[in-house]
């Protein structure tokens, strides 16, 4: 069976055309891809392969060839393999923010913090943290806390979320979703350092303050089935993107608990504000669902653009990738241009 990676480029002109380049992937079946934000041509893939009747799992870091000039072309082999690491029951991998060589892996009940440039990583050794306890204790998802110099990593274990200190690999906080409902995804607010959102099998989005983890500070019910993905907009954290097995991608607003609860003002110089501008009302985006984008199948992933705050994409079980734009009216209200 042939496995592939598709590299897409969106041209933001009047046509809004997409071009793509297809790379053959020789390692096996791909379960996760994550791009290195420090080096955009470097990609990490979490894969499984069947060799001699046994299942092998690992992560492979590689550099795409000719990624700068993306165009429709025939299949191309990946150019350069930079790093490979194998482990049993791998569930998640992510790059450390601002780092080009550091990865966090979740395997069984362990956090494995790897530096590809170190000799220890090459020999299979790494800084390891371990979730203790009996019963089901596999770590299935994780997210970096972008605050405090990214020295915290949060993990999901069934209906528990735990924060870990990266240096000591010790747990520093924990929260639990009510009703023993499995959590599928978490994401940190990029602008409010203690705020976190979770989603899962109760079809809800729950917003937390990790300083007071006993009860969510807000809950949204915009889906009718498992919510596989939830993401804050990295520029305007009142915008929330979620996707679900109900086939819907939902764009919603949580302005009341965002970093811009009173709206956004373009002019901060009070001395230059005239009387007309003083009387101008600030248009604040209300909390609630903005728009639902329907799909024919379950949507397992939804992501914001890393560079354009008004663009997002979703990927569904049928292999369909759809790119959307935040409605112009919502964009203007956030920028206070109405």
Q: What's the N-to-C terminus distance?
A: 53 Å
Biggest sheet strand order reads 3-4-5-7
Number of β-strand runs: 26
* CA-atom Rg in angstroms: 21 Å
What's the overall average pLDDT, rounded? 87
Poorly predicted parts: 265-275
Supply the helix-strand structural class: mainly beta
Helix content: under 10%
Number of contiguous helices:
3
Principal-axes geometry comes out as globular
Q: In this structure, how is the largest beta sheet organized? A: 4 strands, antiparallel
What's a quick, concise take on this entry?
The protein has 338 residues and is mostly beta strands. Helices cover 4% and strands 47% of the residues.
Which helices and strands appear, and what pairs or packs with what?
Elements: E1 3-10, E2 18-25, E3 29-35, E4 42-51, E5 54-63, E6 76-77, E7 80-86, E8 90-95, E9 102-107, E10 110-115, H1 119-122, E11 127-130, E12 141-145, E13 152-157, E14 160-165, E15 170-176, E16 183-188, E17 195-200, E18 205-209, E19 218-220, E20 227-232, E21 239-244, E22 248-253, H2 275-278, E23 288-294, E24 299-304, E25 311-316, E26 321-325, H3 328-334
Parallel strand pairs: 2-6
Antiparallel strand pairs: 1-2, 3-4, 4-5, 5-7, 8-9, 9-10, 10-11, 12-13, 13-14, 14-15, 16-17, 17-18, 18-19, 20-21, 21-22, 22-23, 24-25, 25-26
Descriptive notes:
The chain is mostly beta strands. Helices cover 4% and strands 47% of the residues. It has three helices and 26 strands. The strands form seven sheets. Strands 3-4-5-7 form a four-stranded antiparallel sheet, with no helix packed on it. The longest helix is centred in the C-terminal third of the chain and has 7 residues, at 328-334. The chain starts with a strand and ends with a helix.
């Amino acid at each position: 069976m042939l496995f592939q990676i598709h590299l897409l480029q969106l041209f933001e002109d009047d046509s809004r055309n997409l071009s793509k380049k297809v790379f053959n992937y020789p390692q096996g079946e791909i379960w996760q891809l994550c791009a290195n934000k420090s080096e955009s041509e470097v990609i990490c893939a979490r894969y499984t392969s069947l060799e001699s009747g046994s299942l092998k799992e690992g992560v492979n870091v590689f550099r795409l060839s000719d990624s700068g000039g993306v165009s429709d072309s025939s299949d191309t082999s990946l150019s350069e393999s930079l790093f490979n690491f194998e482990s049993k029951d791998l569930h998640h991998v992510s790059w450390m923010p601002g780092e080009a060589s550091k990865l966090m892996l979740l395997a069984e009940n362990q956090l494995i913090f790897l530096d590809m440039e170190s000799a220890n990583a090459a020999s299979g050794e790494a800084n390891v943290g371990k979730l203790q306890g009996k019963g089901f204790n596999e770590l299935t998802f994780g997210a970096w806390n972008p605050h405090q110099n990214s020295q915290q990593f949060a993990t999901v274990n069934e209906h528990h979320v735990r924060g870990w200190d990266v240096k000591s690999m010790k747990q520093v906080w924990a929260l639990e979703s009510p009703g023993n409902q499995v959590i599928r995804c978490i994401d940190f607010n990029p602008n409010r350092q203690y705020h976190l959102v979770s989603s899962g099998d109760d079809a809800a989005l729950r917003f937390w303050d990790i300083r007071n983890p006993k009860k969510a500070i807000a809950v949204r019910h915009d889906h009718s089935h498992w919510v596989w993905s939830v993401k804050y907009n990295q520029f305007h954290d009142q915008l929330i993107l979620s996707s679900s097995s109900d086939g819907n991608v939902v764009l919603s607003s949580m302005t009341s608990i965002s970093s811009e609860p009173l709206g956004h003002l373009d002019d901060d110089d009070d001395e230059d504000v005239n009387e007309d501008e003083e009387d101008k009302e600030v248009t604040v985006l209300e909390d609630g669902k903005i728009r639902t984008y329907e799909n024919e199948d379950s949507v397992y992933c939804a992501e914001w653009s890393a560079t354009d705050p008004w663009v997002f994409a979703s990927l569904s079980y049928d292999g369909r990738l759809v790119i959307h734009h935040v409605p112009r009216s919502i964009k203007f209200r956030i920028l206070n241009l109405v």
